[in-house]
């Protein structure tokens, strides 16, 4: 995954839309913002390769992809050029390596690739024949360097594999079963995780192995592997079956360990992180770690069922551990259910806010065809964003939509007035010192919807009370309000109606390519009316706040606008005849089914702009809409996926 979480690379037999060809493994590049899927396993002319490709890796900027072609040669795909640039597992004259290469890793800007290779002709003789070694290649200069050597120089007597590289390309970690890679050999020729650095002079050299007990210096008594480096090369995670790296490791299974390194690549401390929040040992093996750029977050897969409560699906799951505060969460979980298959191969974005993983589960929204699918999900590291439609399930018929922008929670409250007629309120709540949000509540009057055109829709704004909102444990929202003489508290939850419900985070990124339209939309020229959209799967739930006869506030819902073949969303509009006044709601707030009063279609030009066409009460109109932004540039805006 790229640094910003936008680009995701994986292997699949799926063909991009419109492509034709045989079914074999291809390297695909997914743009998570636009939804574009392109094939990266192509030749120097941009034509798809005719053999399976494997082992993809992506640069931090998302512009370069390394992979192994069907001949065992390392290729680099340029997203900007749409083609590969020729084999990088070649000798100085450009001749292909005389042995297979594998397991590439790219640095942040895609100028350095590290990989393992059994070739003997990539540079000066490596001295150990076809035993796999670790190489680094500078793609700008073409310089290739052997990294897997004894600390004092010289060939290793065992294979070295699976390298990982820091953002600047200077620090490399890998695992090796060579007995002569460290001064004190591992017991029983156990595989060790080792660190190499590339000095300014271009000398690659193994500095030492870090899969050892930090107090005694004794190497692990069983295999260690799966090393991953943080961007600065100062933090590393790996999996190990060794039981002597930390005290009281007696669970008999592989665990995940986290190491802090000094500037020379020597360990400063080692922590076992595949444990429950209370420190309890995992009752199943853990592997495949992935680490955030700053080393704070580590994702991994585990067969353990006791790392978090409620994990009883008897399958591999993916977890994210916050090393700083020792919290751990399980991700890849469907709504109100357990994954019914394995989740594995986790990959974290640089900031730890997004996790990609592979799954065989059939209940995550990708289908139950028995094939593995790739998913992405926001993590607890993602900036908290409360943008969503919230409700109380025991009181259907009213709701509360939030647009969370920076330190502002802009709320649109759909409810009923004292006479039972539909009414909407707006809330402008700002962040308080204790983390809650509080602000005034307004009721608005305006121009009847069919007469709005070319100017502000509101004609009067009256402050009618105040409200505060606080997020509670269990993702519940506490709403406290006072309107007139009425003071009440409501506990709300997110309105989820599809297994593909989005997660919203705060983002500074470009939303023009977003494929999810959940947000508050308006026409800034006609301020005073708007649409709150909840987009889940192929359905948009619409709430339209506007004005009716005499300029009185009203709202209309579109409970099921379905995706059409042309990409638009269309469906019926409904409006309650009446409902229970706000202060008296203690059960269903209106009668169901809600009467239909028209129809609507949403069309989106891009992730920021669209149109809203409707027929309501016999009036047909089309209005242009865009995402509502109420804060200054630089504030985090809602991005849902």
Q: How would you sum up the global shape?
A: elongated
| Class computed from helices, strands and strand pairing | mainly beta
Tell me the span between the first and last alpha carbons: 16 Å
Characterize the largest beta sheet: strand count, sense, and whether it forms a barrel. Answer: 8 strands, antiparallel, barrel
What's the count of strands?
44
The low-confidence runs, each spanning 5 or more residues with pLDDT under 50, are: none
* H/I helix tally: 0
Strand content: over 45%
Specify the helix fraction band: under 10%
| Main sheet: strand order | 27-28-29-30-31-32-33-34
Query: Quaternary state, please?
Result: single chain
Helix/strand layout:
Layout: E1 7-12, E2 26-31, E3 37-39, E4 54-58, E5 64-68, E6 74-78, E7 83-87, E8 101-106, E9 112-117, E10 133-138, E11 144-146, E12 160-165, E13 171-176, E14 192-198, E15 204-209, E16 224-229, E17 235-240, E18 255-261, E19 267-272, E20 286-291, E21 297-302, E22 317-322, E23 328-331, E24 343-348, E25 354-359, E26 373-378, E27 388-391, E28 399-405, E29 408-416, E30 422-431, E31 437-446, E32 458-472, E33 476-483, E34 486-494, E35 504-507, E36 519-522, E37 530-536, E38 539-547, E39 553-563, E40 569-574, E41 596-604, E42 609-616, E43 619-627, E44 637-640
